[in-house]
Amino acid sequence: MKKLIGLFYKNLFFNNRLFACLAGSVVLFIFGFFFPWLGIIPRLAFWIVVLLVILDLLMLYRTSNGVFAKRIAPERLSNGDENELGIYIESFYPFNINIGIIDEIPEQFQKRDVWFKTMMKPREHKQILYLLRPTRRGEYEFGFIRVFVKSPLGLISRRYNFEQTEILPVYPSFLQMRKYELMAISNRLTDIGIKKIRRIGHSLEFEQVKNYVSGDDYRTINWKATARHSNLMVNSYVDEKSQHVYCVIDKSRSMKMPFEGLSLLDYAINASLVLSNVALLKEDKAGLITVSEKVGTVIPADSKYTQLNKILEVLYKEKTRYLETNMEALYTTVRRVIKQRSLVVFFANYESLPALQRQLPFLRRIAKFHLLLVVFFENTELKTLSEQPAKDVEGIYIKTIAEKFAYDKKLMVKELASHGIQSILTSPQNLTINTVNRYLEIKAKQKI
After folding, report:
1. Which residues does 238 contact at the CB level (< 8 Å), separation at least 6?
2. pTM for the complete prediction?
């Protein structure tokens, strides 16, 4: 009995409308002291408020289970993307109610204002949708769903608590991966900024002999088949398949730098996942190597159906470390694991020219045996500072330093090009598009 009474008081809340009514009663009592002609009006008003409160209690507590709520969430969340979640709510009251909902989202989001308000008719059910954008991989714990119900009188609220604690893992951006996957399947990669590459020459992969249609290259006409069928026939070629594409991710402290809530490592992981998926769709073989002061995970290139899930599970657990990259260990691993000429996409971050020059001897050795593509990041904050006009001496100093760092980035691109190493200097938000674009360009020009 004591427990039921405790729960009753614990889930009972007074609303502002009740306090306003009580304040009005107090004002009437004060005026009644100075104006005796008011008579019993103050007492009558007070007891009316009391009766309304009792009536409100009966309306809310007459139904034992007046509402039902349930969180609708995916099995996992996508890092850096807007993930859609929902709350299903159903009313069992025979009258209209006003509802306020609190969903106890994980502490990683640092949000204390997740409050949804709605009105529900008798026996109505609704679904409330909202978006969450995680910026860190790992496990996110959701708590209770708390529903506050008000009757049409609106004097008090009854709280319902629905225990739905669950832990959702946040994986690298698989939503972004699916978007690029659909684009690649439908050949609509140009719609998202990936330019169309003019093909040079023909692939060695013969597909079939087909009828000539307007636009086919005259050089592919098969004259023997044309003579047999009395119609122009052409040879059809496809991109070479089963080429090896390795994503190498630097996990050193330079990749810890944040940008729009995500670290550079997270951007590299998301781009690696998308690139691996596109490579598998193009029937190439995708592999992965992670490195910091020592070599981390090594997944040999493969085109099996389970390869993408294997890469996803590995990338889910990767974290930045606090020592510099051991390039000698990386070079040894590349020579040991990658047996044939492959495309090696190295995701790193260089903030100064000497930092690149320390690693350059090993990059040159890797480039002797494989097609090496170095992907590193623009410092967008410094770029913004360099473009702002200086207003004082301090501003001139800051602008000069920012321009110097931006110029160093351009020198890095030239330094790599002078040694025959391709590179991409990109902002974090354009990393995926630029990387996939370059992969398609390399494949179209048959450089692997």
Report:
1. 203, 205, 207
2. 0.77
What's residue 193's pLDDT? 47
398 vs 377: CA distance, rounded Å: 20
- Cβ-contact 125, 88 below 8 angstroms: yes
> Residues with Cβ < 8 Å from 248, sequence gap 6 or more?
288, 289, 290, 291, 330, 334, 344, 345, 346, 347
Query: What is the identity of the amino acid at 16?
Result: N
Q: Residue 420's CB: how many other CB atoms inside 10 A?
A: 11
CA distances from 220 to 9, 11, 229, 258 (A): 84, 79, 16, 51
Helix H or strand E encompassing 301: strand 295-302
Q: What is the DSSP string of 233-274?
A: EEEEEE---S-EEEEEEE-SGGGG-EETTEEHHHHHHHHHHH
Beta bridge pairs of residue 344:
246, 372
Q: What angle do CA 394, 400, 402 make, to 5 degrees?
A: 105
> Taking a C-beta distance cutoff of 8 angstroms, is the pair 29, 44 a contact?
no
Give me the amino acid identity at 415.
E
Distance CA 76, CA 83 (A): 9
CATH topology of domain 67-171: Immunoglobulin-like (2.60.40)
Residue with token string 């090993």: 362
The backbone region for 154, taken as left when phi is positive above 0, alpha when psi lies in -120 to 50, beta otherwise, is: left
Chain segment 343-371, per-residue pLDDT in tens: 999 999 998 889 999 999 999 999 999 99
Identify any residues that bridge with 221 across adjacent strands, giving them in sequence order. 234
- Looking at per-residue confidence, does 200 or 323 come out higher? 323
* 351 CB burial (10 A radius; 0-12, 13-18, 19+): middle
Distance CA 49, CA 73 (A): 43
Q: Report how far apart the first and last C-alpha atoms of the chain are (Å, whole number).
A: 77
If DSSP codes are grouped into helix, strand and coil, which group holds residue 69? strand
What type of residue is 197?
I
| CATH of segment(s) 174-198+240-444 | 3.40.50.410
Residues 6 or more apart from 352 whose CB is under 8 A from it?
405, 408
- Region 42-46: mean pLDDT is 87
Domain boundaries, the chain: 2-61, 67-171, 174-198+240-444, 205-238
Report pLDDT for 3.
Answer: 52
Nearest to 281 by CA among 204, 180, 206: 180
